[in-house]
Amino acid sequence: MADSANWDWGTGEKLISDLDEWKSSFNWVEEPYVSPDGEQIASIVNVDEAEFNVCVNGEVWREDIYDKAWHLRYTPDGRLTALVNENDEWTVAVDGESWENTFDYAWNPIFSKDGGTIAVSFQKDGEYGMARNDAPWEELFANLNCPELSPDGTKTAATVQIEDLGSADIFKFQDGVFTAADDGTPWDSKFVNVWWKSFNHDGSKLAAEIRLNLYDYTIAVNGEPWAKTFASVWKPIFRPGTDSVVAPVKAAGKWTIAEDGNIIWDKGFVQLWQQMFSPDGKKIAAIVAPSFGRWTVAVDGIAWSATIGDMITEMVFSPDSSKVAAIALEDEKWTLIVNGSLWQDTYDMAYQPVFSPDSQMVAAKVEKNKKFTFAINGKTWNQKFDYVWDPVFSPDGKNILARTVEDGKYYRRVIPVNEMIG
Amino acid sequence: MTNPSENKKPMVLDEGLEKGAAKLTQDRIEKTIKQVLEGETGARFKAYVETCVHCGLCSDACHVYLSLDRDPKYSPAGKVKRTIGEIIKRNGKVDAQFIKEASVVASTECNLCKRCAMYCPFGIDTAYMMLIVRRICHKLGVTPLYIQDTAHSHAATMNQMWVKEDEWIDTLQWQEEDAREEIPNLRIPLDKVGADIMYSVIAPEPKFQPHLIYDMAIIMNTAGINWTMPSEPGWDNSDMAMFTGDNELCARLKKEHFDLAARLKVKKIVMGECGHAFRSVYDVGNRMLGWRMHPFNTIHAIEFYYDLLKTGKIKIREKYKKSVTLHDPCNVSRGRGLHDKARWVINQICEDFTEMYPNREHNYCCNAGGGVVNCGPPYKIKRVTSNRVKAEQVAKTGAEILITPCHNCHSGMDDILAYYNIEMHTKFICEIINEVMVKPEEA
Ligand code: SF4
Ligand code: SF4
Q1: What is the ipTM for the molecules in this complex?
Q2: For domain A1-139, is the CATH number 2.130.10.150?
Q3: Nearest residue of B to residue A192, measured between CA atoms
């Protein structure tokens, strides 16, 4: 991740680009993306029939055009990537430079936390694999799903099909034709299904949700299933700094948390997912339904008393591990919920909450009546914009980087938090 | 309409049932039945079992019973008697042959269409009882082969037709490119975070009917909708696991679908013209995950077209000339009350609409629904012969076009029209809208 300390926190306002001008230069301009530091704005643009380019701050990426381009995204370290097609071959373009390897198809780019690694799923000559920083797997497979990249970016993994499966051959399917490939090397064991997976901190261990037959679900770590099975499971994660695996499991009709196969919460819920460790590794929070149709967050098995009817998602811990924030939906209105308290203001959409470095403030991008702004510590900023991206706190927590579009122009602003909530 | 006399019962050999039943032990059968009946059913099940007075009022509601010369064994109560009724009577002591036959009854002789429940004075829902039977059969591994394969596809790929991830995206891009011949700046925006609408379809669209995605792209672009289609799994809103009794997989599929909408930060999901998929988000999968209703505003294509026409976002150039009739899909009309909106839409776009009778929430099922069509070729003849009443109902309208805003209905009705030699063609609503609407260059 780019170190925000090096960003320009001194300039109050910069007009980065006049987006309306772009529109007159191209047939069409697709939805824009901005760099983490806010200094760049970019869009895929159509130049002519079946001719595409990427426009960054008003300049095209390169002279040659692409036949197709999609999935434009900035990496956490501020590099601009897209999936591009030239001469019927697909690859990844990074800051206008294409990878050397090309594929019959490439999709689903995933970035490591620091942005240094880009991984992608690909198909070549009817076989499937992943490529990491332009290095494709050597062994390819009949199909590939549920890709994952280790947090440090050193390893890729996906569910792969390792045996042929004839049309409607339900018996062979039930014998197991899938496994996980860890950096392209399949586990020794085969399963009926392998779904979402996680790596440990250094990429040496890989855990995945598996189904052993049509009924028994569990977690496999490096190919070895837990001793216990469950009625269902969701995506596992590793306890930070350890090789222990923690996953939601359904046992005796209720969802709870298991670690290495053993249930560790004494409470069961109607639903439980998206479990997460606090940054200090001491707490586990999860999104839960304590009763049918009501949703909240449980920390270490204790559910908040405030519940909401439709959805809780985008959960995040504060850097000091003391707070949990998420967004909450009821009757098509979103709000924020922080440590069990629902904010009063509601929105047509809310985005993932962002904590200040000292954990004292929480802010989020919000949308109401097709206008965008930020909500901070329960208050909605009175300035409205045609579009904004997620807020970023300055390292001292005093300012917020506001990346906004107004009247067809993209601005980068540094705004004192006091001014926003004052 | 000709009326083929072959009401003969062809021998059905289904490997899924044969091999599954061959593996059963008496102990496993009894334990599984006990677990499902004691662990997974409650007051509702008990009330249904205890309340039925065998009055037979539900019989005339069932197209299967009516089509098979009112043979009582095909009446709703008859199907209950032959399956769960017998299981209860024998206290779970039934053998593998019985389980195989019960699976055939529950999976291929009942569409879970719930028409009978409307006519029962006690509201007994035979569909629910048949789902319990399917659940027992699933847990015993005795499910018809083709629908089981569909469930496997769902499990492996998160879509029902083994569509690989690149094939899906490639199809969307191909349809986008083709549609640019009509509207040069047209887009099918993939993974557009913050779009108002996520459009989701069922896997037969990319596999066999990509022109339906084309039609919707034309409609979305003409109406100026801020929409997106997802590139990732979860794009398929269908759910045959709901019909095999694999509740855990059914829930997993709906989770992928709703998770995707949450990640894309959309305000609404619009689902294509499919009935069972719609039921899976408003009635079944959502509830298996712990939601009362769908977490997002989720609407069927009929409601979407209704909104677009009402608000003038799409306008009609000239109404469709051929005479049309409408088959009400059970999961859309009886299940969710969209029959009047469907009629309003059809009257806006078609000049000559004729009702079939009975209609709206009383309409007869197509006999493909409830996963019956997915049980595949071994049951095809049985499926069409056991819906003669539908053929008669449709033929009487004399219409040229049969509108069926549901994929399963579409397949089922195609088979019925062909088998009974009825000169009529099926169409989805989007196909007609695309033909008659004002396109951007004409505006
Ligand atoms: S097919 Fe429909 S009407 Fe017949 S028994 Fe089943 S749910 Fe009832
Ligand atoms: S289900 Fe209802 S209508 Fe049918 S026989 Fe039983 S009581 Fe009568």
Answers
A1: 0.97
A2: yes
A3: B156
